[in-house]
Amino acid sequence: MKARSKVFAGVLVAVTSFGLVACGSTGSSDNKTGTSNTPEQLVWSGWSGNENSTKPSIQQMIDSWNKDHPKQTVSWQGWPYDQTEQQLIIRSQGGQNLDVAQIDMNWLHTLAETGNLVDLSTVYDKQWLQDNLDSNQLKLGQVDGKQYGIPWSMASIGMVYNPTLLQQIGVSQPPTTTANFEKDLELLKAKDKNVIPYAMSTKGTAELSSDFQVWLWTFGGHIFDSNGNLTLNDANGVKALTYLKELKDKGLIQMDMSRFDARQIFAKDQIGFYNDAIMANSILQSNGVAADQVSKHIQPMPMPVVQEGDHPQSLAWGHMLVVFKTSKDTKTAAEFVKHILSPDEETKYFHDAAMPPVEKSVVNSDVVKNDPWTKAWIAGAAYANGNELSSYTQQSQLADIIGGAVQKALLGQESPQQALDGAAAQIKSTLGK
Amino acid sequence: MKSVAAKHRRGLSENQVGALLVLPALLVFTVIMLYPLINSVWMSFTNASLIRKGQDFVGLSNFTHIFSDPNFSSVLVHTAIFVVAGTLLPFVLGLIWALVLNEGKRGSEFLRGITLVDWIIPSTAIGFLWTWIFQSNYGLLNEVLTKTGIIHSNINWLGQPNTAMIAVILAKTWQTLPWFMAFLLGGLKGVSHEQIEAARLDGAGNFRTFTSVIFPEIKTVVAIVLIIGTIGSLQQFDLIWVMTQGGPADSTTTLAIDVYRNAFQNWNLGTASAIGTVWVVLVLVFMFFYLRAVKEDIR
Questions:
Q1: Angle of helix A330-340 relative to helix A55-68, nearest 10 degrees?
Q2: Which helix (H) or strand (E) holds B242?
Q3: For B157-194, how does the pLDDT look when each residue is reduced to its tens digit (9 = 90+)?
Q4: With contact defined as beta carbons under 8 Å apart, do B225 and B183 qualify?
Q5: How many CB atoms lie within 10 A of CB B14?
Q6: Would you call A4 and B268 a contact, using CB atoms and an 8 Å cutoff?
């Protein structure tokens, strides 16, 4: 009897303790409107606060906010770029607290589909949006008419080259046509077999899909035509992939190359050309090249074209800011976004990290308009197209399909036609077309 | 007196005490292992997605989809190659090393300790280490091979399907060799030295001594480590993901990688769970043989 009582008492204590811990404290007040007297901390998520070239700028934005808002501070929570989308989806679907997040503009439709993003047109004054941001860029942040994303930094993924290496092969200007591009790659290879002539992103399927799209457009192809029909595997698509396969067979493109690897190796003057975003010069600097030497080692260039007179292609690229419904305080989160987009912060971000601003007064300022790097980049991005996959919630899967097909063709496992036919069939199946 | 004795006998029985002692572990097992397993199997019959809330029952649709996908057969083949090679190679090398250490020569204890060091290194760190070794432009292997004149230009180890699979198998071997060595050495310690000496006195060479004297004594240990090693290889994810992400062109994509991709890149939890269920069934086959081997060992 005594033993049984002891066991029963023990179980009762354990259950009661567990219950108290599980119920816990639910917080002192409703924090949605930020009316609590206890200091609250919001979280800003993304990847730029983890990368060397942009980390100081992100921290500076947070510090300047925290100085003026000691009761509503912000802290950074970051992951590598290629894990950020996944982290945001899993955490928001799991009900974890997320406040403000930096996203790649291509992720917007997928994140909007989760139903966890705040329609910022209900938070911001319409006049403020119109006064401060370009209407075309604002449209990029809309899904079904709702303003889920606010543009933060918009430019393109374009091609950069190493002027020092080109000079060594007697080339003073970057190539303008695909034929001349191939010739320059061959000269680079002949000069130094350890140099990677063109570091196309061949490792990850998502990056490869982005780089391949630009080449697809260069050869007059598209993944989908204007009516939404799949045209990936038409004659132009095959031409584009065949061109790249020939570059690979000649040793001018290398497999197992990520954009991250390319940045590191480019800083060592071991790459002639590669594709990157506008802040490639500040990344080069953060990888050890002195500021006064950067222009000798990296310059932007328009993508080569098939025939003179064609428009050089590039991929529209940008970062956006979103606010999550799971935020403790959506009002303050939205104010923090305004702080990031303020002229002071945008100017500093541009100056310190070469990130192109979107705030109108900063875009039109002399500092930005007269910056030689930005001017040259924008000139090459005049015909930038949006990622053809970004309007699909399955964009990640579609990118994987296309990147995988390109890898198979480059490796000779399938012919370009076979690879693209296979990809087209998989895309049809995925989209239920 | 009799009533006092009877009173004491009415305390908890041995079975009840045993059940109470096992209860916490059972609760942990249920929450951490059983519930997720049942939930995953259930999800394999639904269209669960990380993007959309809610899920609908779709019957065998996910299984039909994966078995009709031509890429899935490649995933099974890659899994088989990785599991067989990634288990047998460290096993053979681990056995050889255990036999050497079992000789008890000077320095054996030290060498055993050194061998066990890489067992405690996390898989992810091992993956990064071997990625650096095999990196085509600045990797250690190409540097050594070009400097010694064995090759004249860098080999893209992780960029070609055949060499990428070899690279991940070698990394797996390096990771698990200490584990095989440790268990096999334990088994070898149970083999009578007198029997081995007697065999040698009778003129048996090393191979004959191993096959006729040593192996019969350790065959149960061998069976158990091979089965557990196979299960471990079937579960390997982090090493392959860090080194190749399942590429190039899916050439190192195993079941583990396929589950991850479907769940966390394609956001398709239903399909990922279906692949996971197939994976569990494969593991259960080996679990059956493992449990049988353990039972025989106890007998």
A1: 120
A2: helix B238-243
A3: 999 999 999 999 999 999 999 999 999 999 999 888 88
A4: yes
A5: 7
A6: no
ipTM confidence score: 0.83
- The answer to whether the Cβ–Cβ distance between A256 and B10 falls below 8 Å is no
CA distance A219 to chain B (A): 24
Buried b (16+ CB within 10 A) or exposed e, B283-296: beebeeebeebeee
Q: Which residues of B touch A397 (CB under 8 A)?
A: 265-268
Name the closest residue on chain B to residue A270, using Cα atoms. B137
State the Cα–Cα distance between residues A128 and A338, nearest whole angstrom. Answer: 10
A90 touches chain B (CB under 8 A): yes
- What does the alpha-carbon distance between residue B40 and residue B25 come to, in Å, rounded to a whole number? 21
Judged on CB neighbours under 10 Å (0-12, 13-18, 19+), B185 is: buried
pTM for the model stands at 0.86
Query: Coil, strand, or helix at residue A346?
Result: helix
Other beta carbons within 10 Å of A220: 15
Residue % of chain B over a pLDDT of 90: 67
CA distance A74 to chain B (A): 27
Q: Cα(B69)–Cα(B77) distance, rounded to whole angstroms?
A: 14
| Nearest chain A CA: its distance from B233 CA (Å) | 24
Residue listed under structure tokens 């941001």 = A133
Q: Do A89 and B52 touch (CB under 8 A)?
A: no
Q: What is the CA radius of gyration of chain B?
A: 25
The CB density around residue A291, as the number of other CB atoms within 10 Å, is: 10
Give chain B's contact residues with A (Cβ, < 8 Å). Answer: 7, 10-12, 20, 50-53, 136-138, 153-154, 156, 158-161, 164, 245, 247-250, 261, 264-268
In this prediction, residue A37 carries a pLDDT of 56
A193 touches chain B (CB under 8 A): yes
Q: Tokens standing for A215?
A: 């080449």
B290: confidence class by pLDDT, cuts 50, 70, 90: confident
In this structure, what DSSP letter does residue A50 have?
A: G
Residue of chain A whose Cα is closest to the Cα of B265 = A396
Q: Which long-range contacts (CB under 8 A, 24 or more apart) does B66-74 make?
A: B66/B271, B66/B274, B66/B275, B66/B278, B71/B250, B72/B258, B72/B275, B74/B250, B74/B253
Choose from A201, A255, A394 for mutation: most chain B CBs within 10 A. A255
d(CA B230, CA B236): 10
As a whole number of angstroms, the distance between CA B277 and CA A72 comes to 46
